[in-house]
Amino acid sequence: MGKISKSSRKGKKAWRANISSEDIEEYFEKSTKDALSGGSLAHVPSHSLFYVDKSVDLSAKRKIEKKRDKVLHYESVLQRNAFVQPIPSSIQKKPKRKNKVVQTVEGDAQFEGKGPMDIWGDGGRQNSKPKKMQKPSIIPAVEVEPPGCSFNPPSESHQDSLAIAVADEMQKIYRKELGPDPIPLIVPGESIDEETMYFLDADDGTDDDELNEDIVQTEDMDLEKRPLKTKVVTRVELNRRTRRKEQLKEDAKAKQKKQLSKEIDSLPDIMEEIAREDEEKQKKHLRRTVVKQEKLASAPPRLGKYKYDPAPLQVLLSEEITGSLRKLKGCCTLARDRFKSLEKRGLIAPSKRSGRFVKGFFFGVSWKQKNVKCSIGHSRCCFICLQSPSYQRNYAKWLPFQNAI
């Protein structure tokens, strides 16, 4: 090993430079650690370092209960956090309806011990949800027919009722005649031969060729008419166009000012026109309200697929009036009258009147509808059934169906 080099000892400054400072640095490091850890253990009193354990050992049952009381990780995750706001969509609204009050056994026992209940008292009142009241109908439940519909009516009243019934029937006939014509099942026409079809196709081809030739000729003439050179726009022409644009703008502004001054002068007339329009709107609204009330008084609102079809007026003809109830001919039934009254008041939706079966036939619908049976039992009226003599003899009035096949 080599010798350690000796330092110079010529002066005091050299002696101070060679003095070691490791102990001072160790002291500062130790004091810093003690300050960070809470102080030096040498200066801490004994009662703070040591304590006497006086707790009693828990039994096995208590340990199990303590383990059960411990909150698991998934339970802590599912618990509500006060710092986390809930999602608005997950907040449930409080139900508006009240829960039914359930009578307890104690209440029943107290009730039995009190004695007889007073039916007019408030003790037995329960909290019940009020029922929704229906809107009253303008149409009365039982309508009184005019005096002309009686079994022995006066002559004038009877003629008035007959006129109303005839007017209703004629209105139905006129509405049917003036309505759109139905689509015919068969369109009359003549069959076209193959030769005629060939000539028609040939004519169509020649017309197309002529049209194509005309189009080509017009295009060639347009190309010939086009100028070969574009006209050069000079500075004078550009200045003229600029002046023209400015003049048009000034004319438009002057016209706008003139129109504005004219509108200002005609302001009283505009106010009168606005007031007149408001008055017309109010009158129109009043008319609509009156028409709506009249419509509700005569027919119910639209409830279903079908409209309400009012029942015909039950009026007797002149030869049917006998003047006695014993000789009166039976016409309408009470059940049908009540059913029409329910439909008119809007309590039930109007339905379509179905047909009726008579000896295997289904009256009231066309022969092309489903579930239509003929006298033999076929699902639809076929050509054989329509040509059979029994059909022509017994059901001659249904022969027009033969032309529809």
UniProtKB/TrEMBL annotation:
Superkingdom field: Eukaryota
Segments forming a coiled coil: 235-296
Record bears the keyword Coiled coil: yes
GO BP term, example: rRNA processing
Molecular function as annotated in GO: 5S rRNA binding
Keyword Phosphoprotein among record annotations: no
Gene Ontology CC terms, in alphabetical order: nucleolus; nucleoplasm
Disordered: region residues: 88-136
Subcellular location: Nucleus, Nucleolus; Nucleus, Nucleoplasm
Keywords carried by this UniProt record: Coiled coil, Nucleus, Ribosome biogenesis
Family: Belongs to the NOP53 family.
Role noted for this protein: May play a role in ribosome biogenesis.
Protein name: Ribosome biogenesis protein NOP53
Provenance organism: Lithospermum erythrorhizon (Purple gromwell)
